[in-house]
Design goal:
The complex is a heterodimer.
Chain A: H1 10-35, H2 50-57, E1 65-67, H3 73-78, H4 83-90, H5 125-137, E2 144-149, H6 156-167, E3 172-178, E4 181-182, E5 185-186, H7 195-200, E6 205-210, H8 214-229, E7 235-240, H9 260-269, H10 272-282, H11 288-311
Parallel strand pairs in A: 1-2, 2-3, 3-7, 6-7
Antiparallel strand pairs in A: 4-5
Chain B: E1 3-5, H1 6-20, E2 24-28, H2 44-48, E3 53-55, H3 60-72, E4 76-80, H4 87-104, E5 114-119, H5 134-138, E6 144-146, H6 151-163, E7 168-173, E8 180-182, E9 196-199, E10 204-208, H7 212-225, E11 230-234, E12 237-239, H8 243-253, E13 256-263, H9 268-279, E14 289-293, H10 302-305, H11 312-323
Parallel strand pairs in B: 2-3, 2-4, 4-5, 5-7, 6-7, 10-11, 10-13, 13-14
Antiparallel strand pairs in B: 1-8, 6-12, 9-11
The chains are: A alpha/beta, B alpha/beta.
């Protein structure tokens, strides 16, 4: 654990621990909803990557923006979303963040600056860069973080928007969650050369960090966010991480693209929550009993939110053609 | 009343709106000092500066994506797409992102952007700079589509488009940039969804869009000499479409021809003809006819290109035949 500021930030440490536990708990419940056939459609689990979303979002304010991905529940929780509206959205209920019209792959939480998950791989790279342009044109110091996976680095859009972000020194941070797999294909089979060098080719400062170490992620993110606010952006971060589940919840038999042994090694040795918990206890920041209490409380919260969402109402039929167009302002 | 070119009318509309609302900015290829290849935007960068009139790299998907993100976060971008044919390059950002974000977010996020581009053949520009692709975007719920047919309409519709809270695609006829028309000095807006009856008549209705309004008016002149009275209707926007004005006219005249420069198959003319057939069937004395561009890529050779677009003579000839009752089974 990279921690220079030990014990001085107890509140932030415990908040990050709790947020990582919340993401894991959310995903465990979402997975169960799928497996028990109580969730329409399917979803993509963030479990294993919690330190990325939490480490970065801890460095942001509610005015800062993020764009998210199809594997987006972690970003949504980390940016401040509530379980109840999230589960309602996953189940297509009226009280969901998007009134049930977006679902897992399109959750947006405007109140906390989450501009939304995106079901087109790499589809939000333009949106994130445009939010950064807008922040500057509007005279704010907001920073935008664009989350995407290693698979999205194969999309041409990224190179177009990085070029403009670098030309115009936009306050955007491109955060590549490299979990090693582009859907069902090893990333080294689809990515030539180095991802870092691709960003550096545009003159963008690039960093690599252990995406399983929430303090290392947060430390780097805090520095880059502060610099981006001062107009020193854009930046690129490659975060080495791992997804515990398959590409989506239905991707159960994965032997043809990755081994059980590999999964076990990551889960047993590099779990971001377990390792951070051990560090917190070792540093005397929290006892194991404190951490257990956090886990129990979060688990109960998640289960209550699931129960609430299962009983919540679907949107009425009259909603189907509402919100196709925003109200006009034309005179 | 003074007369100005369509080009000047667009320029005035954008300048007036940018003076009124500081959140408006414009971006695209060669829009600043060059003022676009058609010189439509000349002078804007001198007034508004390079912060608000932004020259982009030749990266259509990239700057379209930036506009979506900027529109979601408090800016009101105008995107300049140099040729309508480049719509194919921006389809994901326009149709998967901009068009759907308001709906997918349950009405929480708005995307107030204008995409201004052009249409029209017979400029000897061959198959990738001559298409009229408005049907493609009219097909996607969430987008509005405006088709001005004169300098007067170009100004009034552009101002309305800029004030609209939705993504609006506005197509200018690239052959009309130097055509003059009376345009008031004082401010005016043209509301969306209100067709213009450009010529009153009693024997048949010519519904024509954009570049084809000139064709319809010329055909009506020819027909008048033959004692046939044609009503000419310009929908001005196809999304939203002013169905009532079209249907009222057809109920009066009992005959209709729809003329639009998109390819004839699966296009705007088919949609309007179908609505007339569905909703005014018992008022019709003849099949509703369509005129569109031939279903071929636009050829370069003038000898061939001129064959691909509707002409006043061909429209007038068809009109004579349906008025004489010669086409009762010839649709």
């Amino acid at each position: 654990m990279a921690a220079a500021k030990r014990k001085t930030n107890t509140e932030a440490y415990l908040r990050m621990y709790r947020q990582m536990v919340r993401i894991r708990s959310f995903e465990d419940n979402a997975n169960q909803l799928y497996l028990s056939a109580r969730m329409p459609g399917l979803t993509h689990m963030y479990s294993g990557e919690e330190a990325v979303a939490v480490g970065i979002c801890e460095a942001l304010t509610d005015d800062d923006k993020i764009t998210s991905t199809h594997r987006g529940h972690g970003h949504c929780v980390a940016k401040g979303a509530e379980f109840r509206q999230m589960f309602c959205e996953l189940l297509g209920k009226e009280e969901g963040y998007c009134r049930g019209k977006g679902g897992s792959m399109h959750i947006a939480d405007q109140s906390h600056g989450n501009l939304g998950a995106n079901a087109i791989v790499g589809g939000s790279m333009g949106i994130a860069t445009g939010a950064a342009l807008s922040a500057r044109l509007r005279g704010t110091d907001e920073v935008t973080v664009c989350f995407f996976g290693d698979g999205a680095t194969a999309q041409g859009l990224w190179y177009e928007v990085m070029n403009m972000a670098a030309l115009w020194k936009l306050p955007v941070i491109y955060a590549c969650e490299n979990n090693g797999y582009s859907e069902y294909t090893r990333t080294d089979e689809i990515a030539a050369g180095s991802l870092m060098k691709r960003a550096e080719a545009f003159g963008i400062e690039a960093h690599q960090v252990d995406g399983q170490d929430v303090l290392a992620v947060n430390d780097l993110a805090a520095k880059l966010v502060a610099r981006a606010r001062k107009g020193e952006g854009p930046f690129f971060i490659e975060l080495e991480t791992y997804r515990y589940h398959g590409h989506h919840v239905g991707d159960i038999n994965r032997n043809y693209y990755r081994s059980k042994e590999e999964e076990t090694i990551w889960k047993e040795n590099r779990d971001p929550i377990v390792n951070f918990g051990v560090w917190l206890a070792k540093e005397g920041i929290a006892t194991e009993a404190d951490l257990q209490e956090i886990r129990d409380t979060v688990k109960a919260d998640a289960e209550a939110a699931v129960a609430y969402a299962l009983d919540a109402a679907y949107p009425p039929a009259a909603e189907v053609d509402m919100h196709v167009y925003a109200p006009d302002t034309a005179a | 009343m003074r007369e100005i070119t369509l080009s000047r009318a667009v320029n005035e509309a954008i300048a007036e709106e940018m003076r009124r609302d500081p959140t408006i900015f414009l971006m695209g290829e060669d829009v600043a000092e060059a003022g676009t290849p058609f010189k439509v935007l000349s002078g804007l960068v001198e007034e508004f500066g390079t912060e608000r009139i932004i020259d982009t790299p030749i990266s259509e998907p990239g700057f379209m994506g930036l506009a979506v993100g900027a529109a979601m976060t408090g800016s009101r971008p105008i995107v300049d797409l140099m040729f309508g044919d480049f719509l194919f390059l921006v389809m994901d950002q326009l149709c998967n992102q901009a068009a759907k974000i308001h709906y997918m977010s349950g009405g929480k996020l708005n995307v107030p952007l204008v995409l201004r581009t052009n249409l029209g053949a017979t400029r000897r520009s061959a198959a990738q700079h001559s298409q009229s692709l408005h049907a493609l975007v009219a097909h996607i719920p969430g987008l509005k589509v405006a088709l001005p047919s004169s300098a007067y309409e170009a100004k009034g519709l552009m101002k309305t488009a800029i004030r609209d809270n939705n993504p609006v695609v506005i197509f200018e006829d690239k052959l009309m940039y130097n055509d003059k028309a009376p345009v008031p000095e004082e401010e005016y807006l043209i509301p969306f969804g209100q067709a213009a009856v450009l010529r009153e008549g009693r024997d048949l209705t010519l519904v024509a869009t954009s570049s084809m309004v000139q064709v319809a008016r010329a055909a009506a002149e020819v027909l008048a000499r033959d004692g046939i009275s044609a009503e000419v209707i310009d929908p001005r926007t196809i999304v939203p479409l002013d169905e009532a004005t079209i249907l009222d006219s057809v109920r009066k005249t009992s005959r209709a021809i729809v003329i639009d420069e998109g390819h004839q198959s699966f296009g705007v003319s088919a949609e309007i003809a179908a609505r007339i057939s569905e909703k005014a069937f018992y008022h019709l004395d003849a099949p509703v006819l369509r005129f569109g561009a031939m279903d071929v890529p636009v050829p370069f050779s003038p000898a061939l290109e001129d064959l691909t677009v509707p002409t006043p003579d061909r429209v007038a000839e068809a009109a004579r035949r349906i008025v004489r009752g010669e086409m009762t089974d010839a649709a």
